[in-house]
Amino acid sequence: MSVTRNASTRWTGGLQDGGGVTSFLSSGLPDTPVTWASRANEPEGKTSPEELIGAAHASCYSMAFAAGLGKAGYTAEEIVTEAAVDFKPGTGITGIALTVRAVIPGIEKDEFEQIAAATKDGCPVSQALKAVPISLEATLG
């Protein structure tokens, strides 16, 4: 069965002087302001498409990693994933750096690294973002 999640952004004004509000229609999370300045400069309390992609990628990777560990017979005490999405105005998204730190009782470093790498390639958000270089730094413990 397929599941659909919805979000919207209402934008007013031009690119440089305008702004918008992103609404998370499915979850009801708080509306979040977005501007070009928050995308190309400092966030100043506003989000950007790249931050939203990073949030999606970090949460997806953590879930997929937990699933991969479970298939191998492990349960993580903790998985912390950060996704740093690089954006260059005029070019676009130039890369995503995933950093994961996990505490997993009983796993050996080699198996941890194999499952982490397989997760980077197999997570659904990674699959959707295949056109962008994705790197991974995985730390056990």
Automatic annotation (TrEMBL):
Name of the protein in its database record: OsmC family peroxiredoxin
GO molecular function: peroxidase activity
Source organism: Glycomyces terrestris
One Pfam short name: OsmC
Gene Ontology BP annotations: response to oxidative stress
Lineage: Bacteria, Bacillati, Actinomycetota, Actinomycetes, Glycomycetales
Classification via InterPro entries: KH_dom-like_a/b, OsmC/Ohr_fam, OsmC/Ohrsf, OsmC_Ohr_Peroxiredoxin, Peroxiredoxin_OsmC
